[in-house]
Amino acid sequence: MYILVYCLISLGKYGFPINSRELRHIIKNYLNRCGRVVKIFQNNLPGQDWIKAFIARHPEISVRFAENVKHTRAAVDESMLRSSFENLAIELKDVPPTNLWNFDETNATDDPGKKKVLVKKGSKYPELIRNASKTSVSVMFCGNAAGELLPPYVVYRATKMWTTWTENSPKGSRYNVSASGWFDANIFTD
């Protein structure tokens, strides 16, 4: 197997796949460092046709959409989840559903979290490990095991709240702003 193919497969396997643009620039940098000039490449940069031909020559590589996943979530495995749920079942044995509340913050960004990357053919769920995203709006949802829901709490990434952001919202909804667009200690206690 060519070293380049091996590296592409390894990067994808460990959550750091590269896209075709990045591969083209890796090739360009390699050629420049070696002092080689490939006349069919413009400024030593392979084109999209070269990428297509490369993938055709190496059927073990395919182009797939990868989804962003934070490094902390990537570290969770099945045994950790099973252990957590077993412990939870013991702790909640005699607690009524109306007393079991859970809240979760979800975040919407202007980054759809999908990017075409080069990975080993047959990879079912290519993931791209990221620690940050772009502009965001966070929403806190809270409900209990009996099916009751509290109104949502929305946090915008901004310094000023615009009244139009609160129009037509569910009754009792709360709104706030933060520099990050995430809930912080002050907002959480609000």
TrEMBL record:
Output one GO MF annotation: DNA binding
Provide the DDE-1 domain boundaries. Answer: 135-190
In terms of domain of life, where is this protein from? Eukaryota
Which Pfam families does this entry report, sorted A to Z? DDE_1
Which Gene Ontology terms of cellular component type are present?
nucleus
InterPro entries cross-referenced by the UniProt entry: CenT-Element_Derived, DDE_SF_endonuclease_dom
State what protein this is by name: DDE-1 domain-containing protein
Lineage of the native species?
Eukaryota, Metazoa, Ecdysozoa, Arthropoda, Hexapoda
